[in-house]
């Protein structure tokens, strides 16, 4: 880029031609907000937003237009972007996508005005430039360089009232031999005929964008600029749509693995994905979770380190080319022993680490002195050193609870350097953790590169939390609120809410270094993945925060949120705060709940502070205290009922409140979730009930919306801007109204599960009505598989069969392949950008893969906090790679829906629709999928006259029908033009 120094070069300002640049952008802001332009040159602030050019608003029709002007020399060039700021020029949000580039031709006359007509770039506009598309799906060997357009000034302004318009449009998904034309209503734009339109400069194949016609109106006043640079955003192509497969890394089974899926198995999974027409492979989190040293660590969302990879996924056979025969034999024996129906987490991890230690002892100096290891170490030492030290201390003290580590409970760099010192007796233990992480990095990198070269997006998972006994909380405790726990309010997954146990984030502290911890985390993840799923994206708007002593998830509050103040409640006539915030326990309630055991419960756990009214004793007034006391009773055989039942019943007593008092400010309160279900609420007077119902509804559905929106717009961009990965958000559960607009603005792709519709009043989602910016799926890892769901509830199955399938017949009791095919076809034909299917649901397309009981294929039970994550696919990747019938069924679904699919063996994946050729005046597709003769005849007849186009316009999926016919070569460009005019 040429930097002219802006009037500060050798020549004086008088010797340079000067012209004005007007910025113009339509954008609606809230009161007190303004739009500002900031750029690379001094006159636009040199990327310091505080020094940028503040624009002025003007209403034009129903639009709010922001304008501003600067004087520049001819030939001026710069990069720039637009920002929304407050009255102090603090950035509230900024447009996403690539920075804009301005190049003014030298030939523009002195004193002239050049006006830039821009459109705000949303996150959706930036998606084609994310690595999933740019480096994998739309991969190109050529690049666009911005050059000055010679044709701009060659079109001389031959009349005084002439205006020169320079059209600009972004087309990231075009081949290098593709041309872009502008056609319009005027003769100079071809009067809607492509062959007579204006060909834009950057080379060559014909395509017509969809959507309503763009408009350009020019004022006839004398003040109208003679040069207009019209930036019309993105080319509106037929929406790109792809499909993928989802499976946890641990669930994969191959002939080479050692009891669990391994990173190198991903190469086989990529091969199967390509053969089946999938552009994406999605995994659950793959970070080290070795906190407890037992099967509890199978929970993939409770990471020991957000940077370290899990040793569970190491392929020990690949550690060395010179492996001794005795170790090879040990591996073969272990393969047989560990090849079970499910993952044996403890035995598998122990075996792998044992073998890895033997190879480490043989080759440690060779590996750790290699240049490749030295490069890995230098790039990762910031997290690798603390991780290795933590693992050593965890094993030495036999606990990950770093508060039990004596003088090492408080982390410091000085202590770290002593722990990892080469002179220490345990230095080889430290180096062993380096060694394992290095090989995990090599193996995952190999698989990731293989996926990229084969046109497959590798999608990772970003957990919302970290384990409270983790490397991250040890090193940076100030980033976490360690006296709290993270969870979710009651939802589809659990009517009692969820308690994940993670400490919540101290966002205020994280913002001080511009979220460096998050940025480092995403940068690390982007080394392997080109897309990622943000687990529980609602947590970036607000998190459900529980006290650390809670075990269940009901008695929480949102953070951040605006509490009910004591003054506010008193104005409403609410005074008795002890009555509302303490468990409401009456004798008749105890008798009803515990029967004849009520006296034992009252004597052991409660104190009668008034006649017939009870409160919990100090030693059992929290859930953790109750659980501990019950366990001690059970150990002494003092319980007449089951420990679990008594625990649930006592927890119910503890939750029988209306308000939760803020533990940090006794004058602030939060309404208990579903407070109307409590006997405490039901016994209130009518006035108090009405007040509490109104305040409850306001707190959960109105009061916080703007606060949560602002919070998300501060935190989420830090994630999105720290890597080039495509981001998807898991937006299930209780969804605030601010969530989807923010996700749309930031270009975040949402999630739609048919059995969990986000639309009120629907029992089953309607895939054909999903938004384009979504991932659709029939199930996910947090719920039962399609087969299991179908078999769980007979009445629900009948309702689905009637309302979704459209049949009054009684449905089959089992999810036969025909049912699976119908539901999968619904999803693959949906408008959603991505249709991603759990591997279990895909295997249900063939009866031979459904012999295993459906309930055994469920990955997680969210209602069980100690669920064992151990599901393994019952067939190997090698066997389904050989199953041509299954791959054909799946690929036909993908191909028949008009979704893009990769071509096996091609460096650059094919993109649907294929390149068109012109023959006899019509566009044809020489590589289109052949059609059945009768079908082709029927479709041709439908396009025979104007009436058929009108019928087509009424179809709900008209865009995809047009897309398919165009791909098959059944319609020419004139038909599409007519359709575009009608549309």
UniProtKB/TrEMBL annotation:
<dbReference type="InterPro" id="IPR013783">
    <property type="entry name" value="Ig-like_fold"/>
</dbReference>
<feature type="domain" description="CBM20">
    <location>
        <begin position="13"/>
        <end position="122"/>
    </location>
</feature>
<dbReference type="GO" id="GO:0004134">
    <property type="term" value="F:4-alpha-glucanotransferase activity"/>
</dbReference>
<dbReference type="InterPro" id="IPR034840">
    <property type="entry name" value="CBM20_DPE2_1"/>
</dbReference>
<keyword id="KW-0963">Cytoplasm</keyword>
<dbReference type="GO" id="GO:2001070">
    <property type="term" value="F:starch binding"/>
</dbReference>
<feature type="region of interest" description="Disordered">
    <location>
        <begin position="899"/>
        <end position="934"/>
    </location>
</feature>
<dbReference type="GO" id="GO:0005975">
    <property type="term" value="P:carbohydrate metabolic process"/>
</dbReference>
<dbReference type="Pfam" id="PF02446">
    <property type="entry name" value="Glyco_hydro_77"/>
</dbReference>
<dbReference type="InterPro" id="IPR003385">
    <property type="entry name" value="Glyco_hydro_77"/>
</dbReference>
<feature type="domain" description="CBM20">
    <location>
        <begin position="157"/>
        <end position="274"/>
    </location>
</feature>
<keyword id="KW-0808">Transferase</keyword>
<dbReference type="InterPro" id="IPR002044">
    <property type="entry name" value="CBM20"/>
</dbReference>
<protein>
    <recommendedName>
        <fullName>4-alpha-glucanotransferase</fullName>
        <ecNumber>2.4.1.25</ecNumber>
    </recommendedName>
</protein>
<keyword id="KW-0119">Carbohydrate metabolism</keyword>
<keyword id="KW-0328">Glycosyltransferase</keyword>
<dbReference type="InterPro" id="IPR013784">
    <property type="entry name" value="Carb-bd-like_fold"/>
</dbReference>
<dbReference type="Pfam" id="PF00686">
    <property type="entry name" value="CBM_20"/>
</dbReference>
<comment type="similarity">
    <text>Belongs to the disproportionating enzyme family.</text>
</comment>
<dbReference type="InterPro" id="IPR017853">
    <property type="entry name" value="GH"/>
</dbReference>
<dbReference type="GO" id="GO:0005737">
    <property type="term" value="C:cytoplasm"/>
</dbReference>
């Amino acid at each position: 880029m040429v930097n002219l120094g802006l009037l500060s070069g050798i020549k004086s300002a008088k010797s340079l031609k000067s012209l004005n640049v007007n910025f113009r952008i339509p954008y609606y802001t809230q009161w007190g907000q303004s739009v500002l332009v900031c750029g690379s040159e001094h006159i636009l602030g040199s990327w310091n937003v505080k020094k940028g050019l503040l624009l002025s608003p003007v209403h034009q029709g129903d639009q709010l237009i922001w304008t501003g002007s600067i004087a520049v020399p001819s030939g001026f060039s710069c990069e720039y972007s637009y920002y929304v700021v407050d009255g102090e020029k603090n950035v509230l949000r900024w447009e996403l996508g690539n920075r804009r580039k301005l190049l003014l031709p030298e030939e523009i006359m002195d004193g002239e005005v050049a006006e830039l007509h821009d459109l705000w770039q949303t996150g959706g506009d930036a998606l084609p430039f994310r690595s999933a598309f740019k480096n994998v799906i739309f991969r190109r060997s050529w690049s666009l360089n911005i050059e000055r357009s010679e044709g701009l000034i060659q079109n001389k302004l031959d009349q005084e009232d002439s205006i020169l318009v320079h059209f600009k449009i972004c087309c990231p998904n075009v081949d290098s031999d593709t041309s872009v034309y502008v056609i319009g209503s005027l003769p100079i734009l071809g009067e809607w005929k492509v062959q007579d339109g204006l060909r834009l400069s950057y080379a060559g194949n014909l395509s017509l964008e969809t959507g309503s016609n763009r408009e350009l109106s020019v004022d006839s006043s004398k003040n109208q600029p003679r040069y207009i640079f019209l930036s019309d955003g993105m080319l509106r192509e037929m929406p790109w749509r792809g499909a993928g497969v989802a499976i946890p890394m641990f669930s994969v089974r191959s002939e080479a693995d050692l009891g669990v899926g391994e990173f190198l198995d991903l190469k086989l999974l990529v091969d199967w994905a390509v053969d089946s027409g999938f552009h994406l492979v999605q995994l659950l989190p793959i970070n080290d979770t070795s906190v407890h040293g037992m099967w509890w660590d199978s929970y993939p969302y409770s990471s020991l380190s957000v940077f370290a990879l899990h040793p569970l996924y190491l392929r020990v056979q690949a550690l060395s080319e010179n492996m001794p025969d005795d170790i090879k034999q040990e591996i073969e024996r272990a393969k047989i022993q560990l090849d079970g129906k499910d993952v044996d987490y403890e035995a598998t991890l122990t075996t792998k680490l044992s073998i890895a230690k033997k190879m480490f002892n043989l080759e440690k100096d060779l590996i750790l002195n290699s240049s490749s290891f030295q490069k890995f170490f230098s790039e990762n030492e910031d997290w690798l050193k603390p991780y290795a030290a933590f693992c050593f201390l965890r094993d030495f003290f036999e606990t990950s609870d770093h508060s039990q580590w004596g003088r090492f409970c408080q982390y410091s760099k000085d202590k770290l350097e002593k722990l990892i010192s080469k002179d220490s007796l345990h230095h080889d233990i430290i180096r062993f953790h380096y060694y394992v992480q290095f090989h995990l990095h090599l193996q995952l990198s190999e698989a990731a590169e293989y996926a990229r070269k084969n046109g497959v997006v590798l999608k990772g998972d970003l957990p919302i939390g970290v384990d409270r006994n983790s490397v991250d909380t040890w090193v940076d405790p100030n980033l976490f609120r360690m006296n709290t726990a993270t969870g979710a309010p009651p939802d589809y997954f659990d009517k009692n809410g969820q308690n994940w146990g993670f400490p919540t984030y101290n966002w205020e502290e994280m913002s001080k270094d511009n979220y460096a911890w998050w940025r480092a985390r995403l940068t690390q993840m982007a080394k392997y993945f080109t897309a990622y799923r943000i687990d529980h994206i609602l947590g970036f708007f607000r998190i459900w925060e529980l006290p650390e002593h809670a075990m269940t998830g009901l008695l929480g509050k949102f953070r951040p949120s605006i509490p009910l103040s004591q003054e506010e409640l008193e104005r409403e006539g609410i005074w008795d705060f002890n009555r509302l915030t303490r468990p409401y326990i009456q004798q008749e309630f105890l008798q009803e709940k515990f029967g004849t055991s009520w006296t034992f419960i009252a004597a052991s756990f409660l104190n009668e502070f008034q006649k017939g009214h009870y409160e919990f004793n100090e030693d059992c007034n929290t859930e953790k205290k109750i659980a501990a006391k019950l366990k001690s009773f059970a150990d002494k055989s003092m319980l007449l009922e089951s420990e679990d039942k008594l625990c649930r019943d006592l927890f119910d007593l503890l939750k029988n409140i209306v308000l939760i008092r803020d533990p940090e400010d006794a004058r602030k309160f939060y309404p208990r979730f579903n407070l109307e279900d409590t006997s405490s609420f039901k016994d209130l007077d009518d006035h108090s009930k009405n007040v509490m119902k109104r305040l409850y509804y306001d707190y959960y559905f109105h009061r916080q919306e703007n606060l949560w929106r602002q919070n998300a717009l501060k935190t989420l961009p830090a994630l999105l801007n720290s890597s080039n990965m495509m981001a998807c958000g898991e937006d299930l559960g209780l969804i605030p109204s601010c969530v989807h607009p923010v996700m749309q603005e930031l270009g975040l792709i949402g999630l739609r599960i048919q059995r969990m519709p986000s639309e009120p009043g629907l029992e089953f989602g309607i895939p054909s009505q999903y938004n384009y910016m979504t991932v659709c799926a029939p199930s996910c890892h947090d719920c039962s598989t399609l087969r299991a769901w179908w078999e769980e509830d007979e009445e629900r199955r009948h309702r689905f069969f009637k309302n979704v399938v459209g049949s009054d017949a009684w449905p089959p009791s089992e999810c036969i392949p025909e049912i699976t095919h119908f539901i999968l076809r619904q999803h693959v034909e949906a408008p959603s950008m991505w249709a991603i299917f759990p591997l279990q649901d895909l295997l249900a397309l063939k009866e031979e893969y459904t012999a295993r009981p459906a309930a055994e294929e469920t990955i997680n039970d969210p209602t069980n906090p100690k669920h064992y994550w151990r599901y393994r696919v019952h067939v190997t990747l090698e066997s389904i790679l050989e199953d041509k019938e299954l791959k054909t069924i799946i690929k036909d679904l993908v191909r028949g829906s008009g979704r893009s699919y990769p071509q096996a063996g091609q460096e650059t994946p094919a993109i649907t629709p294929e390149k068109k050729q012109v023959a006899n005046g019509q566009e044809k597709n020489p590589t289109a999928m052949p059609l059945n003769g009768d079908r082709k005849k029927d479709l041709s007849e439908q396009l025979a006259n104007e009436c058929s186009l009108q019928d087509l316009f009424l179809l709900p999926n008209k865009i995809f029908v047009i897309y398919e016919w165009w791909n098959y070569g059944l319609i020419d460009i004139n038909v599409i033009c007519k359709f575009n005019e009608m549309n």
